[in-house]
């Protein structure tokens, strides 16, 4: 009986947390208008896509992990909202909780331009006429893509098709690798250990529905990732 109540409470808490950020994202989308600024318009389009995706995930979610994924999607949408507000020249608002997908990927620190097969790609820490596409940071095809503003969304092809863009994975690697340089990102043990240990242990134990499996999988995965990587700094919205 105790374990059943515990799981029910965890599920309710995860659902409430996901709904909180989802509803906040919806409110922000309602209150902002893109105008004629390409960077603002694109960021709001991306935020709207995350809102739709988060809503669909919430409709299907029936486990803590699924609600966590919906929460992450809503937070990504809010990251695009902050980007849109920055491009509008207004206060982006309070910091968001860190995105799990962006851990260790860093951020574009300065204006950069690279040439790949005769095409030039630009990146900047700030929105501009030649860098209107924002990305909150994450891993695509296992490679880090730093947060920042880009001349075009070259990562979307890999996300959509599961393959590299502009002719193959090697080209995608060349672009992502070049922009990841000097981004402040890290392939630290914590990011790898926590993600692998926590997610595999948590999912295996919880999804099987076995109390012992849940506790052991979660605790072992968490402790293993934490101990191997060190402390993790987060922030409250």
Estimate the mean pLDDT confidence. Answer: 77
User: How would you write the strand order of the largest sheet?
Assistant: 1-2-6-3
Helix content: 55-70%
How many helical stretches? 7
General shape: globular
Summing up helix and strand content along with how strands pair, one would put the structural category as alpha+beta
| N-to-C SSE string, H for helix and E for strand | HHHEEEEEEHHHH
Kindly provide the radius of gyration, computed on alpha-carbon positions and rounded to a whole number of angstroms: 19 Å
List the uncertain runs: 162-167, 187-237
Classify the beta-strand content into a percent band.
5-15%
Describe the largest sheet.
Answer: 4 strands, antiparallel
- Note the gap between the termini: 35 Å
* DSSP E strands, number: 6
Structure description:
It is a single chain. The chain is α+β, with helices and mostly antiparallel strands and 237 residues long. It is built from 7 helices and 6 strands, in the order αααββββββαααα. It has a 4-stranded antiparallel sheet with strand order 1-2-6-3. The chain has a two-stranded antiparallel ribbon with strand order 4-5. Strand 4 and strand 5 form a beta hairpin.
């Amino acid at each position: 009986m105790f374990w059943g109540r515990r799981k029910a409470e965890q599920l309710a808490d995860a659902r409430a947390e996901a709904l909180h950020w989802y509803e906040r994202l919806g409110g922000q989308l309602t209150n902002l208008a893109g105008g004629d600024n390409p960077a603002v318009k694109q960021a709001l389009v991306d935020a709207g896509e995350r809102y739709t995706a988060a809503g669909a995930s919430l409709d299907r979610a029936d486990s803590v992990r699924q609600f966590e994924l919906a929460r992450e999607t809503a937070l990504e949408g809010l990251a695009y909202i902050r980007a849109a507000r920055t491009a509008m020249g207004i206060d982006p608002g309070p910091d968001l909780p860190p995105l799990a997908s962006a851990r260790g990927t860093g951020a574009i620190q300065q204006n950069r331009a690279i040439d790949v097969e005769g095409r030039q790609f630009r990146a900047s820490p700030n929105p501009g006429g030649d860098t209107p596409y924002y990305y909150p940071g994450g891993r695509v095809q296992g490679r880090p893509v730093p947060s920042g503003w880009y001349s075009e969304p070259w990562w979307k092809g890999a996300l959509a098709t599961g393959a590299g863009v502009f002719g193959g994975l090697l080209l995608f690697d060349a672009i992502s690798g070049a922009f990841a340089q000097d981004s402040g990102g890290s392939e630290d043990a914590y990011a790898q250990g926590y993600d692998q240990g926590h997610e595999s242990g948590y999912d295996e134990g919880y999804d099987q529905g076995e109390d012992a499996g849940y506790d052991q999988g979660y605790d072992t995965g968490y402790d293993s990732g934490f101990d191997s990587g060190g402390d993790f700094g987060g922030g409250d919205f």
